[in-house]
# Entry
Amino acid sequence: MIKNHKHKQLVQKILLYLAVFAIVVWTVAPYIWLIISSFSYRIDLLQVPLQWIPPRITLDNYYELFFSRGGTNANAELFIKAIVNSSIIAFSATFVCLLLGVLTAYALARLKFPGSGIYVGMMMGAQLLPPIAIVIPVYVILRYFNLLDTRYGVLLVYLSFILPLVVWLMRSYFAAIPSELEDAARIDGCSRLGALFRVVLPLAGPGLVSVAVFAFIAAWNEYLYAFILTTVDAKTLPVLIGEFSTKLGLEYLRIAAAGVLASLPPVALALVFQRFIIRGLTSGSVK
# Structure
């Protein structure tokens, strides 16, 4: 009986490891191929049978993203401009959402006022709408205020779907912190805001970091709104990458190089703040 139980556990463990390995390969393999393609020549990628390790390595695909050769590369300037636009919009959206989201989430978690439950329900209910369903109203509103193809217009649209997510997540973190700590701080002379910044936020640090990372990635990777609401001046990196083309077709090697560069900020943030993200996701699970 004991041997059969151990044998069953061994089989279950092997199946679990195989499933995890399959999921990792399914997830990582496209990104690995993207990196390989970005360092390859076109002719090497078209070889049959397929070679996972390219026989030659080149940096030309990256070089052509930033520098023009003989005036033939018109996308170099646009690529740099798209990086600037994405960086400004993503960092601005993250900062504004954290600033407003923390105050709103704290008020919803600690203060009792009429309609607070309805407010939370309406805020999250609006997130159930698919983005494509409200693209036309958003486009009309931005056109009326002359905000099409501007960073301010894109930023306002991003705030509309990132801010509710920040409020919802931070509200959960604040609710998991004992209110007695704030009461003790207020007895010692702290105001409500003083207790928030001196007591609550330090305790909610891991959750704050994880929410900031999620907000940045959501703004950095967003494609639909940026594709519809921008043309040249405020075009972001995901939109520009999809437009790399010539008379001969898509330049998929340059798309691969641009895709690798575009993925670096989210990957770097996830690796650097991995410990805080895990602590933030598991916050409140163990009392």
In short: DSSP finds 14 helices and two strands in the chain.
